[in-house]
Every structure is written in structure tokens, then in C-alpha cells.
Amino acid sequence: QNMGNLTIMTGFLLMGFSNIWELQVLHAMLFLLIYLMALIGNLLIFTLISLDGHLHTPMYFFLKNLSFLDLCLISVTVPKSIVNSLSRSCYISYLGCVLQLFLVILFAGSEISLLTVMSYDRYVAICQPLYYETIMIKGYCVKMAVASWFSGGVVGAMYSASTFSLPFCGSKMIHQFFCDVPSLLRISCSENHIVVYVSIAIGLGLGIFCCISIIISYGHIFSMVLKIPAKEGRSKAFSTCLPHLIVFIVFIITGAMAYLKPSLDTDSVLDLLLSMFYTVVPPVLNPVIYSLRNKDMKSSLRKLITWKYSSEELMKKSFP
């Protein structure tokens, strides 16, 4: 396993959740369950919004993007981890590791940007309803979605290029269940990480900008909502906005903690848990929080089920 002082690294070993085979199988089953929940939830939202003409509005256009991003984000890390647990092989190729790091940052960064755009969309809808139609035109929404994806791509390219510009020698063991920057820095044999720190600082700057934008949007929304005389209207607006805010805060805080906390040489369960919070939890929670509690989505789902049911009945009548 040890490659001595050879600087050519052909691959890495990802950390398993346990050395005990039964626990590895349990972890694989748990991850599979989580993955299927995220897959079904996000695919359902994507399909409903695509099929239902009533849902072709800016808000649902962004939600459709969010569910696609979530699908991608969880698919980059979890299936590989399941396969590794069951095959008892923790190996990931050098290129596979580069690609995994790039995609995780691409999708996570794009998601932060998209959640910022979504908070702006809610701000316009609640605080400037008369101008909503003129501001949130289709072309503008598409541009904002493209900008979200682009910003994630730029940060992803920066992180992976700067991290893999470092030499790796000696240990191949990554203390994480996927390739991420902090755990790769720990096994680099270069003491000079300035390039990586610069790209992390740029990513952090983007994160702070998104946080401030979201706080401003929700600040306006909450002050507007408190002016609503009807208690029902107030609680409806709060029940829509508060979960968004909670998911975003968890996503940002755990991501920031994983990247900013001092690196320890001991394997810590905290590292694994923190990274799960920003790579695995949002794709599972987002469908429930953003969409499936939503009245329009529920009626759309009902329509889809009854349409399927009625078309099956028709088939039976036509071909008894």
C-alpha cells in the first residue's frame, strides 16, 4: 500500500465508516435508503414541474433546478461509498478523485447560488408583487440559473486545480468518504498550501455574499409579512420561508466548519458527520421542505396519480 517517496500517485484510498464487516453492510444499507429517498423525492419534483403547465412559473423553474442539483450532488458521493463498503475496496483512481472533488464543489457551490436566487424570487413575489411579472421574466430567470451553475463551476475548477497542483507522496489514505479539499491537504507532502487557501478564500467570499443577500431578502420578507393583518397569511408566509432559511443555515455552517476548522491528524467522526451534513442531508431534506409540503405540488401529484389511474381504467375498458 505504501508508495514510499514516489511522487506519482495513481490513486487514493477513501476512509470506510468501520472496519467491522457487519457495520460496513449496515452503513451501505443506510446510505442506500438515504440515496433512494433523495432520488425519489427529487425525481418526483422534477417530473411534476416538467409535466404540469400550472407549475411553469419562476419559483418552480428554480425548484426544478434545485432538485436536479440535489440529485447530482448526492450521486457524486453516496453510490461510490455504498460500492466501497460492499466490495471492501476503498480505492478511488487519481482522476476519479479529481472529478469527484470538482463535481462536489460545482454542485454545492451552484446550490448556494441558486438558493440565493430563490430568496430574491420570494422577495420580489412578497415585497413587490405588482412588479413580479415584469421583473421575473423567463429570460432573466434562465440567466440567473445559468449564473448559479457557472459560479459553482468556477469555484469547483479553482478548488480542484489548486488542490491537485500539490504533490502527493507517502500516504494514500483520505480521511473522508469522498475526495474533499481538507482531507487531501492533510496527505499532501507540500507545506505550501497558499494556492489552495486563495481559492478557499474566493469560495468563502462567494458564500458570504450569498449569505448576506439571503439575510437581506428574508429581512425584507419578514418585515413585510409582519405587516399582514391576517394571521393566516402571516403563518403561511412564515411556514414557507423559515424552512428555507433553516436548510440554508445548516448547509452553510457545516460546509464552512468542514473547511475552516483546524485540521487534526487523528481520524475524527466529526469530519465524516460534518461532510454528511453538506453533501447528503440537503438533497434528502430539500424535496420535503421546499416542495412536497407545497399545496400546488400536492395537487399536481394528485392529478398525476388520478390521470394514471383513469388512463389505466380506460385501457381496461377498451381492451377487456
TrEMBL record:
Q: Name one GO cellular component term.
A: plasma membrane
Q: What does this protein do?
A: Odorant receptor.
Q: Which UniProt keywords apply?
A: Cell membrane, G-protein coupled receptor, Membrane, Olfaction, Receptor, Sensory transduction, Transducer, Transmembrane, Transmembrane helix
Its subcellular locations are: Cell membrane
* Keyword match NAD: no
Which species is this record about? Sarcophilus harrisii (Tasmanian devil)
> Which family does the record assign?
Belongs to the G-protein coupled receptor 1 family.
| GO MF, any single term | olfactory receptor activity
UniProt topology in membrane: Multi-pass membrane protein
Q: Which Pfam families match?
A: 7tm_4
Superkingdom in the source lineage: Eukaryota
Report the residue ranges that make up the G-protein coupled receptors family 1 profile domain in this protein: 41-290
Q: Does the keyword Chloroplast apply?
A: no
Q: Give TM regions.
A: 6-23, 30-49, 91-110, 194-216, 237-260, 272-292
Name under which the protein is recorded: Olfactory receptor
